[in-house]
Amino acid sequence: MDYKKIVDEVSEKILSYSQDTSGWRVIKVSKNVTVSSKPSKEYAGNLYRGEGIIKEVPSKIIPFMYLPEHRSKWDKALQSYKLLERIDQDTGIYHSVTHSYGMGLISSRDFVDLLHVKPYPGDVLTTNSVSVECSSCPPTPSCVRGYNNPCGYVCSPLPENPEHSKLVVFIQPELGGMLPGSVVEAALPATLINLITETRAGLKAFKEPCSM
Q1: For each successive 10 residues of the chain (212 residues), what is the average pLDDT?
Q2: Which of 11, 49, 74, 139 places its Cα 20 to 30 Å from the Cα of 130?
């Protein structure tokens, strides 16, 4: 599998999403996070965008969000999250398992994703991911295997306050199973809001010294 070609293509798509200003529809605003959507070009669903401000710099935010040693401590949506294979310094294959959602309405899902971290001028840092097959992690009966179409984080410092960053998250997952579209439409905006608010809370807790 040509991982470099895949991550280059996904990185181009995430960059294009971040530069695309037309056709977005705001569908939910909560906890200082704005969620918008537009029809996806990858599958028969929507591309979702979550935006929020975080009091930290991109070089601290992005590793906190994707490295297992950090994310497993703060992301309440995940049962487990681990690195399966290191491709190079900035690229790896990761396995995530979600908790069930909506009082069991959406059962546990798992995803195997190729993830690449890419910087851009202006201290902008991004993650660029897509689901791949991995022989060391086949689907299991314990959860439904989902598929992430190109997704990622785009984190950039605020020009007026460089110690704060704008975080933009793009997702367009195919959750698998027999879920009604209305259930997915309700769940994904909340997922984005929770991800950004839990990132904020996790960074704040991580920075605060532990009391003796």
Answers
A1: 95 98 97 98 96 97 96 93 96 95 80 98 97 94 94 97 96 89 86 96 75 31
A2: 74
